[in-house]
Amino acid sequence: MHSTRLFRRKYLFSKIITYVVLLIFVIPVLWLVLTSMKPNIEINTRPPVWISKHLNFDSYLALLGFQVKHEGFGFGENVPFGDYFRNSIIASLGSTFFAIIIGTLAAYAFSSFKFKGRNGIFLSLMLARAIPGIALSLPLLILFTRLHLSDTVFGLIVAYTAMNIPFTAWLMSGFIGEIPNELSEAAMIDGCSKWESFVRVELPLVGPGLAASGIFAFLAAWNEFAIASIITRTTASKTFPVGLFDFTAEFVSDWRGMCAMSVMMLIPAIIFVITVQKQLVKGLTLGALKG
């Protein structure tokens, strides 16, 4: 009887903690969505208007290129939303693709081969990821300017790929390192080369790790601001985080348009997470068990 009560208390406590955590994450997003649909006059009022009686989607329509009637300044009609969306998608997906390929190959090399300085190189790779992006901004600007990569989406792909390789290599090395050597040896006995054994036998077994690496690499590139704000200058390469500054003028800021663009910025990320959710959870759970 006592154990049953104790279990119920623990269950109730866990439920309360869960709801509190959900509220902490949901309330800011809900406020963001509501602000994007409020009239400008209600956004900065005191006391704040939590739920307006005049909600509309004008700010979203304006971002998508539709003509809307509105009061005052704003709604970002002149903000090139389509260019920012294109640049963000290309830079994020492109860097994720290359980071997974290079990071997985690096993880395979560190996990399957013994060579001089392996631990030192791996540690150096991890320490490189610890350097803040803002500290690399000026050297990257000078380097990319000389290489004619500044203000290009390809330059962002290169920067984000280099940024995500250390984490991808670290995560994938844990998955690859847990694959029994007997599987690779059996494949080689059957006539496979080392490379064929990796592609046909080992790589399919680390699918959850690939999903987990992909989602983290994508979100890191999608939300990155420090590097993009330095090496991008025009709509030819600006991404969503940098483009949000287009809603800020010298004396006023279009908070409604900024919130609307932030909400639309969340949609592709949410779709990407939902798409790989099962593999992501499976990969993180497997990685935790192995650790």
- Helix fraction, binned, reads over 70%
Strand content: under 5%
Largest sheet report: none
Order of helices and strands: HHHHHHHHHHHHHH
Textual characterization of the structure:
- With 291 residues, the chain is mainly α.
- The protein has two domains: 2-63; 81-290, MetI-like fold (Orthogonal Bundle), CATH 1.10.3720.
- It contains 14 helices and no strands.
- It has helices spanning 2-35, 40-43, 58-63, 81-112, 118-129, 133-146, 153-177, 181-189, 194-205, 207-222, 226-231, 240-243, 255-275, 277-290.
- α8 (181-189) packs across α9 (194-205).
- Residues 287-291 have low confidence and may be disordered.
Element layout with pairings:
Elements: H1 2-35, H2 40-43, H3 58-63, H4 81-112, H5 118-129, H6 133-146, H7 153-177, H8 181-189, H9 194-205, H10 207-222, H11 226-231, H12 240-243, H13 255-275, H14 277-290
Helix pairs in contact: 1-13, 4-7, 4-10, 5-7, 7-10, 8-9, 10-14
Short characterization:
The chain has helices at 2-35, 40-43, 58-63, 81-112, 118-129, 133-146, 153-177, 181-189, 194-205, 207-222, 226-231, 240-243, 255-275, 277-290. The chain is an all-alpha fold.
Keywords for this entry:
2 domains; MetI-like fold; mainly alpha; disordered C terminus; single chain; 291 residues; 14 helices; 72% helix
